[in-house]
Specification:
Blueprint (H helix, E strand, L loop, with lengths): L12 H26 L18 E4 L2 E8 L9 E8 L4 E5 L5 H13 L4 E6 L5 H4 L9 E4 H22 L14 E3 L4 E4 L2 E9 L5 E7 L4 E3 L17 H14 L3 E3 L4 E2 L4 H24 L4 H10 L10 H4 L2 H24 L17
Helix pairs in contact: 5-6, 6-9, 7-9
Length: 365
């Protein structure tokens, strides 16, 4: 509006009225734009009516989990399973392991907004498996991980992205791009997230080359990523069986009250049992390999004998999962082979039996 119109005079009243109407519309537009930028989506009528909310499970104040499972389109392959952890109650949230695709990450983001949980300001990747890290791009916020996990992602993620397209289907991976961590977390580092103080603990060469644990000593909470799995036979891929057992012993030494792993949430009185079941499976691999070496078995004979053991059918596996019996057996045989080769190197070098799983008198050579 020309400045002279602000001086009301004869014949100018209509023009001033029009000018004020224009100014009013601009103010309304600016206010509405500001509201849309700062208010959660649930506060805007109709914004979330068409959103399919994910089933967030509140474990403790400021700590919620989302158990996700995505079936493979390849026959005989096990489903991909991830437990995502959301830390925070107020306006700022941190998400741990956002899932396998951008679409999954966007669905979580929309659920958090529509349920008034606040805004995600950071991500943490506990390890370099595709199921945990390919959802990073949905949030467009800084991503934190250990240096080894970051390096592992840069080596493997391009191949993992292509593999996930084949397993989950191209439509499911639409828009998914690799986002590397830009913030490095180090062992022993203090961290503030979700209203709690955490300590970073890095478990080297365990479930993977680097597994990140977040430990809250004040509340006795251990976020353990893939180190403990409550529904599946674990996959011994990039890590080492003895390193994994050592990591579980380190977790037990913390005496946590709460344990959050992959598809497992355990509270007071249940934590040690969950760790022990995971440990028993891994030590079963070690014992069977050592027994085979002591008996002069070949690698083929060890694998043939491994099928007859009950290790591949742990009590914690759900009935639905047992429907994929062949796939579970194949994963168990893969684990046994990996353990065999690790233990074989120790045996050939005439080192002492691994005390973590075997007592020296029982296996003296």
């Amino acid at each position: 509006c020309p400045i002279e119109l602000l001086h009301i005079g004869p014949g100018r009243l209509g023009a001033v009225t029009q000018c004020l109407a224009i100014l009013r519309s601009w103010v309304q537009w600016l206010v509405c734009g500001w509201c849309a930028s700062v208010l959660p989506a649930h506060a805007m009528p109709g914004a979330c009516e068409s959103t399919e909310h994910l089933a967030l499970q509140e474990v403790l104040p400021g700590l919620a989990v989302l158990h996700g499972q995505w079936p493979s389109q390849i026959e005989g392959q096990l489903a991909h399973a991830v437990t995502t952890v959301v830390l925070g109650q107020g306006r700022e949230l941190t998400v741990v392991d956002p899932g396998p695709t951008q679409k999954v990450g966007l669905a979580l983001k929309a659920t958090l907004q529509c349920q008034g949980h606040g805004r995600v300001i950071g991500l943490i990747n506990t390890h370099a498996h595709a199921e945990q890290v390919l959802g990073n791009r949905a949030f467009q916020v800084p991503v934190a991980a250990t240096a080894v996990t970051t390096a592992s992602m840069k080596v493997r993620c391009p191949n993992c992205l292509q593999a996930m397209r084949q397993e989950l289907g191209v439509p499911a991976l639409q828009g998914t791009r690799i986002v590397w961590p830009t913030r490095i977390l180090r062992d022993g580092q203090p961290l503030r997230a979700g209203g709690r103080s955490w300590q970073v603990k890095e478990m080297a060469m365990a479930h993977t080359e680097s597994d990140l644990v977040l430990w809250s000593a004040d509340d006795g909470i251990a976020l353990v990523g893939g180190l403990v799995d409550g529904e599946r036979i674990p996959l011994l891929a990039q890590g080492r069986v003895l390193g994994w057992v050592q990591a579980l012993d380190a977790l037990q030494a913390l005496q946590p009250k709460w344990l959050i792993g992959q598809h497992v949430v355990r509270g007071p009185g249940e934590v040690q049992g969950a760790i022990e079941r995971q440990r028993a499976y891994l030590c079963g691999l070690v014992k069977f390999a050592w027994q085979g070496l002591e008996s002069g078995w070949s690698e083929a004979e060890v694998l043939q004998g491994a099928v007859s053991t009950a290790l591949w059918r742990p009590e914690s596996v759900s009935q639905e999962a047992l429907g994929q019996e062949s796939a579970w057996k194949q994963q168990h045989l893969f684990n046994q082979l990996r353990a065999w080769r690790e233990i074989e190197a120790i045996w050939i070098d005439q080192q002492a039996a691994p005390r973590a799983c075997l007592s020296a008198p029982d296996v003296a050579r």
